[in-house]
């Protein structure tokens, strides 16, 4: 099961210099889908699990006890768009948003099928009971073996733990709010017999009907915080407005301090060139789209999964230059490749449309990748991004080309493109990865215009 290390989010000496303390964690967050997260949480063994969002990271900025509790947790689950965006700043893309309100029902549904029992602890008086009633109604055969509120019911810690252990619960959901629930779990988990103890924040309030959930489309956009802010503006304005801004600002500042000057300059070059191209080439982009629509059926843009830096997949954008069923016909044409090695290229590819031949000859089909550059998935200069099946067939030395971001242009593109053999292409890409500089990038951008005019290897 994958994990993502957000080493730019906190520092070990954070509390020696509070001003340099930055949000989030130098900890390993679970990078997984909800289904696989449930597999891990219910696997044999005792564990504690905490959800981590932008607010949690901001709390760690001022609460050392909470940070210690988080550091000692067995599983950390990324929650919310703030964590996802902070990850993207360093090129990390999380597989899923593992928020407690969605994950807990899935966890308990699986627990019910395996006969595991749950104990609900927290919330205002009556909230845990109402949440239990909802869960029992929604999840067949679920056993809720105990409930306790987070006010008077939480005053005597020894009594709480004795009640949990006497219930025989396998799972304990603690809803005392951040940071109290994590600190409570950290201090007491070793005394609890349950297999899994996790903090669930406002999940019991949602289940009890105390707070209504955002519409599904807003939740899928990872923007449920907007809904909650609208419901409780006085209480949540500081957390979501000031807090989210503070979190992103600190995360961004940290990344800028830690990356090299060359990396910042290269990214600035990418954004500048891509932004200028969007404006200057707008007429070309529009005319190309109209020509593709008039020439053949199908969408104007072609989307395809490619492999980017460090082996991360992403969706590449190109103007469609082939028939709509091109992907389905690819396997039957592999034997006609003009190039030896892994990458398929054919001058007489029957899938290419009339307009496709023209835009390929002029490299116009690659222009939509400007979007990939602006999104940070590609650079202006770099190795061409390969297909997943091509990367799977790479010899070991070829994997070195994945050490840098793929690009729209590069050494291979200005040296003959498809006329260059696979082994030569790999040599060029490895050479670039070892010796790239801003000056080299500028030279390759300039040489790209000559390569486009000559059309050598463009098919």
Give the key terms.
48% helix, 2 domains, Polymer biosynthesis protein, WecB/TagA/CpsF family, alpha/beta, 12 strands, exopolysaccharide synthesis, WecG_TagA_CpsF, 6-stranded parallel beta sheet, 12% strand, phosphotransferase activity, for other substituted phosphate groups, elongated, two-stranded antiparallel sheet, 459 residues, 21 helices, Bact_transf, single chain
Write up this protein.
The longest helix is centred in the middle third of the chain and has 26 residues, at 233-258. The strands form four sheets. The chain has a six-stranded parallel beta sheet with strand order 4-3-8-7-5-6, sandwiched between helices. It starts with a strand and ends in a 5-residue tail after the last helix. The protein has helices at residues 34-41, 54-62, 64-71, 81-88, 100-113, 127-138, 157-167, 180-188, 203-208, 216-220, 224-231, 233-258, 261-280, 282-295, 326-333, 354-361, 370-374, 388-392, 411-414, 422-435, 438-454, and strands at residues 3-5, 28-30, 47-52, 75-78, 117-122, 143-148, 171-175, 196-199, 301-307, 313-319, 379-381, 407-409. It has two domains: 3-256, no CATH class; 261-454, no CATH class. The protein has 21 helices and twelve strands. It is elongated and about 80 Å long. With 459 residues, it is of the alpha/beta class.
């Amino acid at each position: 099961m994958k994990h993502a290390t957000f080493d730019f989010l906190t520092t070990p000496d954070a509390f020696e210099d509070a001003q340099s303390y930055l949000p989030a964690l130098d900890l390993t967050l679970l990078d997984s889908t909800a289904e696989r997260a449930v597999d891990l949480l219910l696997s044999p063994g005792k564990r504690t699990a905490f959800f981590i969002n932008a607010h949690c990271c901001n709390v760690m900025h001022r609460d050392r006890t909470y940070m210690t509790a988080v550091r000692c947790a067995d599983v950390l689950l990324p929650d919310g768009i703030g964590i996802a965006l902070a990850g993207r700043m360093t090129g990390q893309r999380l597989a899923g948003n593992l928020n407690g309100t969605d994950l807990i029902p899935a966890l308990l549904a699986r627990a019910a099928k395996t006969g595991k029992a749950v104990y609900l602890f927290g919330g205002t008086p009556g909230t845990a009971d109402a949440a239990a009633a909802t869960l029992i109604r929604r999840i067949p055969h679920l056993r809720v073996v105990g409930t306790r509120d987070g006010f008077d019911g939480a005053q005597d810690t020894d009594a709480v733990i004795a009640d949990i252990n006497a219930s025989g619960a396998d799972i304990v959901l603690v809803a005392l709010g951040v940071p109290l629930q994590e600190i409570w779990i950290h201090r007491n988990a070793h005394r609890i017999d349950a297999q899994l103890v996790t903090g669930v924040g406002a999940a019991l309030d949602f289940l009890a009907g105390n707070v209504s959930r955002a519409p599904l489309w807003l939740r899928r956009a990872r923007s449920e915080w907007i809904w909650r802010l609208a419901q409780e503006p006085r209480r949540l304005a500081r957390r979501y407005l000031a807090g989210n801004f503070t979190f992103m600002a600190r995360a961004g500042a940290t990344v800028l301090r830690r990356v090299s000057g060359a990396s910042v300059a290269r990214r600035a070059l990418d954004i500048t060139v891509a932004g200028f191209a969007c404006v200057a080439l707008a007429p070309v982009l529009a005319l190309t789209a109209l020509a593709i629509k008039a020439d053949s059926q199908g969408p104007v843009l072609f989307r395809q999964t490619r492999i980017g830096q460090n082996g991360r997949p992403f969706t590449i954008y190109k103007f469609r230059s082939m028939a709509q069923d091109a992907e389905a016909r690819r396997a039957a044409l592999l034997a006609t490749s003009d190039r030896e090695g892994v990458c398929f290229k054919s001058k007489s590819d029957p899938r290419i449309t009339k307009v496709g031949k023209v835009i390929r000859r002029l490299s116009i089909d690659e222009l939509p990748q400007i979007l990939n550059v602006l999104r940070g998935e590609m650079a202006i200069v770099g190795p061409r991004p390969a297909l997943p099946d091509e990367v799977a067939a790479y010899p070991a030395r070829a994997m070195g080309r994945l050490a840098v971001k793929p690009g729209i242009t590069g050494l291979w593109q200005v040296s003959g493109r498809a006329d260059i053999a696979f082994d030569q292409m790999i040599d060029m890409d490895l050479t670039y990865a070892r010796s790239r500089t801003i000056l080299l990038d500028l030279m390759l951008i300039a040489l790209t215009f000559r390569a486009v005019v000559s059309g050598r290897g463009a098919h």
